[in-house]
Structures are given as C-alpha cells and as structure tokens.
Amino acid sequence: MRYEIRLAGEGGQGLILGGIILAEAAGIYDGKEVAQTQIYGAAARGELSKSEVVISDEPVWYPKVEIADLLLALTQSAYDEYIGEVKETGIVIVDSFYVRNYRKGDKVYSLALSEVARRIVGREIATNIVSLGVITAISGVVSRDAMREAVLHKVPKGTQEKNSAALEEGFRMGEDAVKIH
Question: What SS3 state is found at 136?
C-alpha cells in the first residue's frame, strides 16, 4: 500500500504543519512508513504552498507525490495547479469558501473548512486542523487516535483544547460528507 496526499493552498494556512502532523500520526502513532516534503514560496504568506505526505506499509523510496490519492486544496490557485495530478479514483477535498470552480464527482468534497475553523477557534489558522479531521474521516489512511495524539503533540501549548475541538469537528464533517456521497 502506498497512499499519496498533497495538501495545497497558500503560505500562512498551516499546510506545512498539517503535513508534519499527518506524517507523525501515520509514522509514529500508527506505525506506518512515511515521508513528508514541503514547498512554499519565497514570500511564504500568500504564495503557493504545498505539503506532501506518502504513507506506505513498506519503506518509502521516493518521497514525492507522483499522482495523488488525495488532494486538499484550500485556494482556487492550488486547485487549478494540482487537480491534473490526482488519480482518477482519487479523493479531492476543497474549501468551499475559497474554491468555487471545481469539477464535481463522486469523490469530490466541497466543505466549509475555513468557516468552521473561524466558528470553532475564532480564526482561520485552524483550517489545517479541521482539514486533518476531514482527511482522516474520509480516507481512513490514519486512525483517529493517531491523529488526536499527533495534533496534541504538535500544536502550540495553550491551544490544545481549541485545536482538539477543530479536529473533532473535522471528523464529524468528514463522516457527514461520506454519508451524503
């Protein structure tokens, strides 16, 4: 099993941290083989940013995503840039507030990720954590317990309660989205 995930958006959306948390959940807490890479623009905030995570049952010899099993796109430009690099049977998750022009399909989920982050935490910075909950619930590529552990280990001290609430809401959103599809 080799599962390739690309988290894409713009600098400042927490995608690098999101990729690190996802890799830690899979590698440390679920005991899978994992590789995580990242790219972000020179100006970081506002530039195209992506984090890639490859999860496998065997050693990961090539750490980059070749063709994604799952794409998370938090901006229209990220969607436009990477939609052509998703498997035909792949899962696409977009933020409904920022990505309005996307292809419809059985495994395309348009969800209010940033809006939920604003409601739960008061700021969009938690969109990455909401998204990790959604990814976990929809893909099943990591366990919920592993994701909870990784989030609590990586988020800044004093933010654990709000980030836990954001993650749990992401789990719920993902469950609901699967039921509808």
Answer: helix
Under DSSP, is residue 64 helix (H, G, I), strand (E, B) or coil?
coil
- Nearest-angstrom CA–CA distance, 22 and 151: 9
- pLDDT tens digit string along 68-120? 999 999 999 999 999 999 999 999 999 999 999 998 887 999 999 999 999 99
Report residue 84 as tokens. 């052509």
Tokens standing for residue 136 = 């976990």
Whose CA is closest to 92, among 172, 164, 8?
A: 8
Nearest to 24 by CA among 148, 159, 163: 148
What sign results for the dihedral spanned by CA atoms 36, 86, 124, 159? negative
Distance CA 9, CA 47 (A): 8
Report the alpha-carbon distance of residue 59 to residue 84 in Å, rounded.
Answer: 27
Phi (first) and psi of residue 5, to 5 degrees: -125, 135
Question: Tokens standing for 48?
Answer: 């195209």
Q: How far apart are CA 17 and CA 19, in angstroms?
A: 5
Q: Which amino acid is at 12?
A: G
Closest CA to 6 of 28, 37, 29, 45: 37
Helix (H, G, I), strand (E, B) or coil at 167: helix
Work out the angle between the directed axes of helices 127-139 and 113-121 (0-180°, nearest 10).
120
